[in-house]
Design a protein that fits this description.
It contains 9 helices and 10 strands. With about 280 residues, the protein is α/β, with parallel strands linked by helices. Bound molecules: adenosine-5'-diphosphate and magnesium ion.
């Protein structure tokens, strides 16, 4: 693989101590190429968020290596922007101000020249248009729907032109229709901005529709079960989800998740109980 953006090697991570110790990540190896859209999918508790947050520099790790652009990750960095399920906007700032007031700009506030501010302002305007936020640019977050708030959060994350966008179930709180719109929007943004995206979800359909590769994770300990190369090109439309090929791969992934997470046993027991009743 040429031009590796993120490299994870033999990553192990534990939470807690003694009998409360949780093996959250076990022997994770993963290379993500520049410009790739990778999705991490798996049952709740399999370590998706932990892996993403560790790549983001929000979690410490003792065993293994994480490299971004060939440099060891030892904390958050402007080249890795994160978007979470909760929108985490500043409620007292307008949409436009929220986007302009990116963390990176905040850091450099005292050293900014007027041309820096002009460039940033042009970038913010472009992102407002790209994300379809022009008509709400002067509104406050509380006045917006969840989908619109998440657009603001994504625009703000893109403001500093990150190399990597790390997203943790960013559309998890949205209704199904809004999610479809957001899926096509994020794909459009990704193709235009040419960022690398690592996207966490528990929704197999979402993982498959968005990703070029789907990393299927399994719990106890949190690990990579398998990696699926998605055979669909960059141009994707909602109808793809109805195709037999899409549904065949979706079924395979679901089967892996059910088998590795114990859901299958639960379902079989439930079926036996129902039959017995
Ligand atoms: N801050 C924490 N302290 C203790 N245990 C944690 C913490 N965060 C996550 N865990 C545990 O680590 C495992 C993986 O969690 P997580 O990465 O959140 O999984 P996922 O995002 O796939 O649902 C789970 O068993 C979870 O309970
Ligand atoms: Mg999670």
């Amino acid at each position: 693989m040429n031009d590796i953006k993120i490299r994870v090697r033999q990553l192990d991570k534990y939470y807690g101590k003694d009998e409360r110790r949780v093996h959250a990540l076990a022997g994770i190896n993963l290379d993500i190429a520049a410009g790739e859209f990778v999705t991490l999918v798996g049952a709740s508790g399999c370590g998706k968020s932990t892996l993403l947050r560790t790549i983001g520099g929000l979690e410490e790790y003792a065993d293994g290596d994480i490299l971004c652009n060939g440099r060891m990750v030892d904390g958050p960095g402007a080249e890795r922007a994160m978007v979470f399920q909760s929108y985490s906007l500043y409620p007292w700032l307008t949409v436009s101000e929220n986007i302009r007031f990116s963390r990176r700009l905040q850091h450099n506030r005292d050293n900014l020249t007027s041309s820096d501010v002009e460039i940033a302002s042009g970038r913010a305007d472009a992102l407002i248009r790209l994300m379809g936020l022009s008509h709400v640019a002067a509104s406050y977050p509380a006045e917006l729907s969840g989908g619109m708030q998440q657009r603001v959060a994504i625009a703000r994350a893109l403001m500093g032109r990150p190399d990597v966008l790390l997203m943790d179930e960013p559309f998890g709180a949205l209704d199904a229709q809004t999610r479809e719109v957001m899926h096509d929007l994020i794909r459009h943004v990704y193709l235009l901005e040419k960022t690398t995206v690592v996207f966490v979800t528990h929704d197999v359909e979402e993982a498959l529709y968005l990703g070029q590769r789907v990393v299927v994770m399994a719990p106890r300990p949190g690990r990579i079960d398998s990696i699926v190369d998605v055979p669909f090109g960059t141009e994707r439309e909602q109808d793809l989800k109805l195709s037999p090929e899409f549904n065949q791969i979706k079924r395979q992934i679901l089967e892996r998740i059910r088998e590795t997470s114990g859901i299958k046993t639960d379902l079989e027991q439930l079926a036996r109980l129902t039959r017995a009743a």
